[in-house]
Amino acid sequence: MSIIAWTWIIVGITFALYIGIAIWAKAKSTGEFYVAAKQIHPVLNGMATGADWMSAASFISMAGLISFLGRDGAMYLMGWTGGYVLLAMLLAPYLRKYGKYTVPMFVGERYYSQAARVVAVICAIFVSFTYVAGQMRGVGVVFSRFLEVPINTGVMIGMGIVFIYAVLGGMKGITYTQVAQYCVLITAYLIPAIFISIMLTGNPIPQFGYGSQLSENGMQILGTSGGYLLDKLNQIQMELGFSAYTSGGSKSTIDVFMITFALMVGTAGLPHIIIRFFTTPTIRGARASAGWALLFIAILYTAAPAVASFARLNMIQTLNNKSYTEAPSWFKNWEKTGLVAWKDKNGDGKIQYAKGNAFKGKLAFDTNAVGPYGERVVSTPLDETSTTELYIDRDIIVLANPEIAKLPAWVIALVAAGGLAAALSTAAGLLLVIASAFSHDLIKNVISPGISEKGELIAARIAAGGAVMVAGYFGIHPPGFVAQVVAFAFGLAASSFFPVIIMGVFWKRATKEGAILGMLSGIIFTAAYIIYFKFVSPDMNKAENWLWGISPEGIGTIGMMINFVVTYVVSKLTKEPPKEVQDMVASLRYPRTM
Amino acid sequence: MAEQDKFEAYWRQNLTYIIILLSIWFVVSYLCGIIFADSLDTIRLFGFPLGFWFANQGSEVIFVVLIAVYVRLMNALDTKYDVHER
User: How many CA atoms lie within 13 A of A441 on its CB side?
Assistant: First the structure.
């Protein structure tokens, strides 16, 4: 059976499963719609959180990023897992004790202020929309590459699926679909990794495999002598002019430090993650759930660097200095999608790979033109400063990995289903945050407080439906800055929610003036820094112009510190919070209701 | 007032746990995985340079262990101070 037929079958089965779950888990009350009636077992909530958290970027792009960054890529691995330690100890149990439905609601009540709540609503909606646009795009991209339908059709199909289970089931439907999606995506990620690990090292556990010695079979496939896989990779990288794979490369230590920190506190401040801990039956369960979530996430995150190094080694050895006409079939397949390209700079008919860029700027092709060896012709100007002739998109590492390793068609189909599961599960979690911010924080709280339970549930469904439409629109017409705004989402979450919630729980004296000014100064500083370097003068976006050498990706850490300091100083100078607020803070600290 | 003292002792103990565990969290990721990674790389753990291993896998594994330890400690503490959910 062909790859496409397999892909339709596997994707079709998984989609039917998601829809079936949605019908079974229909939400009947607002409590079910917002927090699944707090009836989710901690282990299941851990799986759902894993799927909620691992997005198209984690599944498709992360291993590729690491593959090209070497040890510096670990800032994503640590940054996107370390936040769960903070969640388990500093946030989840206390917010679960609070127990109401949204993060802005907590901020509003703890800081006895509608203004604080409104600032929080705006942050939550902004962060979630920037994030969700990328997910819908991811769905479209997977559809177009594996099923050869136009990207926009893919986005529409994705919208249809999310619409059914988010609108119908709310948090309850989303949770159970996310559990299923976790199972799909982790299987899809591990199977190719296990196959390749066995092929190259004979070790069936990829997490250990990349620290092992190459097997006989591995040496033959790669055409190298034996030894530790990572040593081989270091040696090959250095021969091509790169820095060693296992040592830091292009980024300064302070920048890696700051980016890692911003990603960690950003994770702990993302509303769609925090809200998951509202769904467990107990506070004990909320703590345990953070542990389960991280365990399930770590299974993928410890496999990712293995996938990255296997793919890097495999890719360099099967392409470098091989003549194009004898290049493996995966290279020509993916050339059609524009994710890989080759230009014979030195006219020897062979593919040369080295440090630097083959082309200057965004890749474009001469449609229909064919080069002397049958390759696609790139119209982008050449970058003459480098001898490399190869353009490789980072996403290729995960998407084409099964083909590079010559795995059977059903494995390739499974990867497509896994990518879709990762994108859809994250999109659904984000859409719920947006829907509840509208229906609970704006309609129920500000516009029409007298609304009935039934009315609010209808409003929540309409808001979820509307959010799906807007997300789909952004998926079809991606604003040029989608790739740039990931830094935004984490930076804003780090500099707004994280400090305000921590202070709200751990310091009774934090006042509303402190919190509002703290959030505003944190956000304004972070946003201004990112906007300046990403949009106003992108030419200036270089290490020598950055504040203390901190890139826009890492600046959220400084924004967070500013928020803490401002909240502290202003709170000290203003009147202490009312007694009932201080009593509420005290009650958050003990699991039992006294 | 005895009730109040009990709550405060419980909270202080919780804060102590958090400070100890987050110190470990900081050491494994920021010190072993980033700042001292180059010096640790001279030591090898099977095929992994040690600093590279902390950054790639070690930190993640230790994070999971830290949460598991915290969950156990807090479950015991809740019962000891009789503030656990019933």
Answer: 30
Predicted interface score ipTM higher than 0.90: yes
Interval A27-58: pLDDT, tens: 787 787 777 778 888 888 889 998 899 888 78
Nearest to A47 by CA among A364, A421, A573: A421
Reported as a single tens digit per residue, the pLDDT across A352-393 is: 787 777 777 777 777 777 777 778 777 777 777 777 888 887
pTM for this predicted structure: 0.88
Which domains are delineated in chain A?
Answer: 3-314+407-482 (1.20.1730.10), 340-392 (no CATH)
Cβ–Cβ below 8 Å for A284 and B78: yes
List of chain A residues whose C-beta atoms are within 8 Å of the C-beta of residue B14: 589
Chain A residues within 8 A of B70 when measuring between CB atoms: 88-89, 287
- State pLDDT tens for residues A228-283: 877 777 778 777 777 777 776 677 888 888 889 999 998 888 888 988 888 888 88
In the three-class reduction of DSSP (H, G, I as helix; E, B as strand; rest coil), residue A397 is classed as helix
Which residue is associated with the tokens 């050491």? B27
Looking at the partner chain, which of A78, A89, A213 has a beta carbon nearest the beta carbon of B22? A89
CB distance B64–A298 less than 8 Å? yes
A207 close contact with B: CB closer than 8 A: yes
Contact A358, A383 (CB under 8 A): yes
* Segments in A320-379 forming alpha helices (H): 329-336
Q: Which residues of B touch A287 (CB under 8 A)?
A: 67, 70-71, 74
pLDDT at A454 over 90: no
Question: Considering only CA atoms, which of A90, A125, A10 is closest in space to residue A408?
Answer: A10
